[in-house]
Amino acid sequence: AGIGKRVATDLARRNARTILACRDRERGQAAVEEIRAATGNAAVVLRLLDTGSLASVRAFAGAVLREEPRLDVLVNNAGVTGLPFAITSEGLEQTFATNYLGPFLLTNLLLG
User: Family per UniProt (predicted)?
Assistant: First the structure.
C-alpha cells in the first residue's frame, strides 16, 4: 500500500521485473494483480518477507540471489509505527528490528 505500491507500479510501468516483498500473502497478491492489470506487466511477482524477522530476511535474500540474474534497484520502504512494545523470537525489539535491522541486513546481503 502507499508509497511502496506506487513505486512498484511505476517500475512495472517501465517494464521492470518487479518483486513485491510483502509480509501478508493475501494483501501482497492483491497488489501484484492490481499492478499487473494497471501496467500490463506480467513480470510482477510476490515474495514473502517480514523485515522484523532476521531469519525471514536471510531466506528472502538467499532466494533472490539464487533466482534472479541481477538486481538493479532496491527500495526499502516497509516500516511500522505505534506498535506496543514487543520482543521478536530472535530477542530484538519489534519496531527496531522491522524498521532498521531487517532493512540493513537485507541491503547488505543483497550487495553480495
Answer: Belongs to the short-chain dehydrogenases/reductases (SDR) family.
The kind and range of the H/E element at 73 are none
Q: What is the pTM of this model?
A: 0.93
DSSP H helix total and E strand total for the chain: 5, 2
Element (H, E) at 13: helix 2-13
Dump strand ranges (E) for the chain. Answer: 18-22, 44-48
Query: Residue 19: what pLDDT?
Result: 98
Position 24, amino acid: D
CA distances, 17 to each of 5, 8, 10, 109 (Å): 14, 10, 11, 20
